[in-house]
Amino acid sequence: MDLPGLDLPALFTPETAIVVLGYGLLPDGQMRPELMARLYAGYVSALLSPQAPVIVTGGNPQNGVTEADAMADWLVDHGIDRNRIHAETKANSTVQNAAFSAHLMDVIGAHAAILITSADHIARALTNFRAAGISVVATLTPDSAPLSAQPFGPGVR
């Protein structure tokens, strides 16, 4: 995005990954409202930073679906290019979210992260991501977003 007279902050670059942390799925593989709130925040961040890679992280499969796969599919269904999305499907804890995301960031050439999780989880997540060597340049907690929000964005009518 090139807007005359406007310099976008450094966090809106292809070298800064948007990392959305998972949250346990329902037994049928559907996303819980808390995960949907995190995902909406990640979606808005992806729209604001169209060059940034998006990492969705979370294993713990339910009904054959991991948290990361459910989030990736939702983002694609809402217009985010699948090539931008990197699903980390093995993590079973916040420590693993951080470690596996750090490895994935190295592979894709991202050097910093915008970390998206819930307000009651951000302190622990931030500690774990920093311990994994990730430079977290921003955090986003979507807890104040309405959980009953209707889908929005490109292709949604």
Descriptive terms for the model:
157 residues, alpha/beta, Rossmann fold, five-stranded parallel sheet, 4 helices, 15% strand, globular, disordered N terminus, disordered C terminus
Task: Report on this structure.
- This is YdcF family protein.
- This protein has helices at about 35-50, 65-75, 95-110, 120-130; strands at about 15-20, 55, 85-90, 110-115, 135-140.
- The chain has about 160 residues and is α/β, with parallel strands linked by helices.
- A 5-stranded parallel sheet has the order 3-2-1-4-5, with helices on both faces.
- The longest helix is centred in the first third of the chain and has 16 residues, at about 35-50.
- It is globular.
- It starts with 15 loop residues before the first strand and ends in a 17-residue tail after the last strand.
- The model is unreliable at about 1-10 and about 145-155 (pLDDT under 50).
What is the terminal-to-terminal distance?
A: 24 Å
Helix content: 25-40%
- Helix and strand sequence: EHEHEHEHE
The CATH C-level class name? Alpha Beta
User: What is the count of distinct domains?
Assistant: 1
What's the β-strand tally? 5
Contiguous low-pLDDT stretches (5 residues minimum) are: 1-8, 144-157
- What is the name of the CATH architecture? 3-Layer(aba) Sandwich
What's the total helix number? 4
CATH superfamily: HUPs
Domain DUF218: 17-143
Protein name: YdcF family protein
Organism: Nocardia tengchongensis
